[in-house]
Amino acid sequence: ARRGATWAGMSDEKPWPARSYASIYAFLALAESDWVKRGDVVRAIWPDLEVAVAANRLRVALADFRRNLAPAFEEDGPRFRFNPDLISIDLEAFRDATRLAGDAIDAEVEFQTLFALLPTLRKGFLSDIIGEWIEPHRLRWTKEVLSTLRRLADLATSRLDWPSLMLIADAGLVHEPFDNGFWRFKLRAGAGT
């Protein structure tokens, strides 16, 4: 999510507030401006804790969110969300860029637009966030990324741009290490140089 905050480096070795805050932040960002109920967050982020303990952790986190993220953090009784006018998620920007690239009349413009996304496409999706609730989002992201990378690889191949094809294949293999298609692209790029 964007707003100057990053949550890289969160792991099970971090104290619970850091992990929990990152998870709550991601949960809200992925809600895509929908209101979220406290109980949904408690069940998703702390499924194995006693309800009272989990509810207390959420209360502490929400107090910090109110103090540090206002006015981007909004509450309405038992519901809360990020204000969609003040916070957007990288996934929205990615989708907008791929839509723009798909609308391009010229293959070169499409290639340049998609290739500019390559640093984002190489990363895992919220890989430090743990929980069953994140998996559907992670799978959706991976599917969209792989589709974009395949299109980008086809464009690089048609341009005979072997160095770019190698970078694209490597990005695909980050997500799908055993994907025959990305290995073929990598071999083709290696033979073309």
In short:
By secondary structure, the chain is mainly alpha-helical. 62% of the residues lie in helices and 5% in strands.
Tell me about this structure.
By secondary structure, this protein is mainly alpha-helical. Helix content is 62%, strand content 5%. It has nine helices and three strands; from the N terminus they run αβααββαααααα. A three-stranded antiparallel beta sheet has the order 1-3-2. The longest helix has 24 residues, at 135-158. The radius of gyration is 20 Å and the shape is elongated. Mean pLDDT is 84; it is low at 1-16.
Largest sheet: spatial strand order: 1-3-2
The shape, in one word, is elongated
Q: Beta-strand level of the residues, as a percent range?
A: 5-15%
Question: Averaging pLDDT over every residue, what do you get?
Answer: 84
Sheet of most strands:
3 strands, antiparallel
Number of distinct beta strands: 3
Order of helices and strands: HEHHEEHHHHHH
Q: Could you give the distance between the termini?
A: 38 Å
Helix content: 55-70%
